[in-house]
Amino acid sequence: MALVAPQYRDWEIGEFLQDDWRVKRWLTLNLGLRYDIFAPIKEKYSHLSNFDPTDPASLAAGQVQIAGTGGVSDSVNIATQYGDIQPRIGFAATLGHRMVLRGGFGTSYWPNNVASPANLKNAPLVATYTINQTPATPTLKLSGSVPPPTPNPTCLVAACGAPPGSNFTVAAATQLDYHYTLAYMFNLTLEKEFGSNVLSVGYVGEPVRHLGRVVPNIDTNLPPLGPGGCGVTTTVTFPSPCQPYFSQIPFLNTVQLLETNGVSNYNALQVQFQRRYRAGLTFAANYTFASDLSDVGGTGGACTGCAQVWNNFGRDYGPSDFMVKHRFALSANYELPFGKTRRGLVGVLEKGWQLNGIYAFATGQPFTVLDGAARQNSVGITQDRPDLVQAQSFHQSINQWFDTTQFRQQPFGMAGNEGHNTFTMPSNRRVDLSIFKDFQLRETAKLQFRAEAFNLTNTPSFGLPVGTISGFDANGVPTQAGNFGRITTMNAFYTPRDIQFALKLIF
User: What is the pTM of this model?
Assistant: First the structure.
């Protein structure tokens, strides 16, 4: 159910500036309210299954919960969330001297249970079917039938009949105390008109709470020699008393759990300069200086090297996977003044030309370096974050994008001190240019010639450096084995210079 307030007018600075400026102050206030009820996604004729070990009742039962059976609700006891009121308020005020102040505040909810960890693909809705074939004695023939698969068991402990030595996996569990993501959005912008130009300076903020966090294995052990660890100095393997749920569910190896305790904080300075159409020229320039910090990752809440120490998510708080610290864009359109008074063939060839250009620059997105030989000694973790020491001076190039000597393997059984997303991939820039020429065929029709060049300067845009340590030398310093620290790929959005010509009939 959604209750949405009527749309209110989005005031533009031009409307204020064109009004009678004898009115010294004019304040417009806009209010809106939205109310949603979010219910877990379920199909009428299918069941969902879930097992949340952080829920005492689920842990005590030691069984996968199946929707609609045994007293379990149709939504696997994940409560429908009521009371999702989402207010909005906005204002705009003229301040005199051809200035306008605008601002707004609002909140929005996002269900967030849309990615793979929220699909609840667990027993008894899934089955593991293994075929062991040999050429001499095949057990499965094309001429034969495929035996029906046996669903995976829902009993995870001996008390309900799980056989000794079992090794169970819960592939997609959702926290029963599930909350929908709540985003607070606010902005304040001051705009000033200079002749036919407009300059605006604004602040935009968006703190977000209850973000989805994917814990790859909530049943992995803490680093044994770190805070809260079990203290062993040998390699931890399943099953191990070091695992947090060993005493209650010793047969459970892995539980991938979707929680909603993630946070992010976005703050940005936004500056825009606009030249309105005058003498055939119009252009706009935009600059954003932003900070986006988070302790979760992208879609689905998974991020590289995160949630490896399940009781200390603060160590994952750092630049967001999507953070772009600096971004600048310039766009311009110029109608060339040549030949406007010419007649005949010369006029046809000289007039009607238009030049368009776009320049864009953005700093690269952050990434995390991992050690391919995990040292923190936690079950199921094969790559972890190493220790970071003082960086040394070096020449940055695609052959060494960051100082590869500033990493060390942390002591065995400890978590490394490298922060999340400490490093930044290369920035990218490009210039697009186009030339248009209009040929007027009649009053209601014209033919447009277009010559367009994308990435005119053919500037390369490099991808992510190899960020996994493959080996160390005798002094414990990483080598460049496996191209560690080198850039070997292009940016996924990179395109080389592309020039095209076209004729467009406009009528």
Answer: 0.85
